[in-house]
Design brief:
By secondary structure, the protein is an alpha+beta fold. The chain has two domains: 46 residues, no CATH class; 81 residues, SUI1-like domain (Translation Initiation Factor Eif1, 2-Layer Sandwich). It is 42% helix and 17% strand. It has a five-stranded mixed beta sheet, with helices on one face. Helix 2 crosses helix 3. The structure holds zinc ion. The site of zinc ion has 7 residues, from loops. GO terms for molecular function: mRNA binding; translation initiation factor activity. It holds the Pfam family DENR_N. This is Density-regulated protein.
Length: 181
C-alpha cells in the first residue's frame, strides 16, 4: 500500500532544484550523461572533475557499480564453465554401449547408424573402413562417435561387431530399431 497521496506528486520534489538544468560537458559539449559514449571519455572525466566535482563523483560511483556487476557476471560464467569441465571429465564414466539403428535414406534405401564404438576405445576410422569392406558398401564416420553404413546391415552387426572386437559382447549392443524420417 502506498503512503503517498497522488496530489503530492504534482508538487515540486524538494530534493531536486528546479528548473532542472541539463549539464553540458565542456570537453565534448554533450550532456554529461552521454560523456561515457564519447571516445575521449577520459578527457571528459578530467573536465568533470575540475568543473563539476559533484557530477564527477556520481559518474565514478556509477562506474564502480558497473564493475561490481560485471564481476558477478564473470563469476557466474566461471561457475557455468566449471560445470562444463566436470561434465567433460566424466566422459570416462560414460557407459560402454554400442547402439545400432536403421535410418531411411531416399524412398527405399536404408542406412545403418552405429554409435558408441569409441566408448570401447575403437578407432572410428578403422571401424568404418572395416564395415565398408565387410559389407562391401560405403561406410564413413559421420559424427563424434557415429558411423553410417550405406545399407541395411543392422542385424548382421550383432554378430560382426563381437567377432571383430571381442571386448564388445552382444549385450553391449543396443538395437534402437528404426529411426524416424
Ligand atoms: Zn564529455
Amino acid at each position: 500500500m502506498s503512503v503517498e497521496h497522488p496530489e503530492y506528486r504534482l508538487g515540486a520534489d524538494p530534493k531536486i532544484n528546479y528548473p532542472i538544468k541539463v549539464q553540458y560537458c565542456g570537453n565534448c559539449t554533450l550532456p554529461i550523461e552521454y560523456c561515457e559514449y564519447y571516445p575521449e571519455y577520459e578527457k571528459c572525466k578530467q573536465w568533470l572533475e575540475r568543473n563539476l566535482p559533484t557530477e564527477f563523483e556520481k559518474v565514478k560511483l556509477g562506474e564502480d557499480g558497473n564493475e561490481t556487476g560485471t564481476g558477478e557476471d564473470e563469476k557466474k560464467r566461471q561457475k557455468r564453465g566449471g560445470k562444463g569441465m566436470l561434465k567433460a571429465k566424466k566422459k570416462e564414466d560414460v557407459p560402454k554401449l554400442v547402439t545400432v539403428s536403421r535410418a531411411p535414406r531416399g524412398k527405399k534405401k536404408s542406412v545403418t547408424v552405429v554409435t558408441g564404438l569409441s566408448t570401447f576405445d575403437i578407432d572410428l576410422k578403422v571401424a568404418a573402413k572395416f564395415f565398408g569392406s565387410k559389407f562391401a558398401c560405403g561406410s564413413s564416420v559421420t559424427g563424434e562417435d557415429e558411423i553410417v553404413i550405406q545399407g541395411d546391415v543392422k542385424d548382421d552387426l550383432f554378430d560382426v561387431i563381437p567377432d571383430k572386437w571381442p571386448q564388445i559382447d552382444e549385450d553391449s549392443i543396443d538395437d534402437l530399431g528404426d529411426q524416424k524420417r
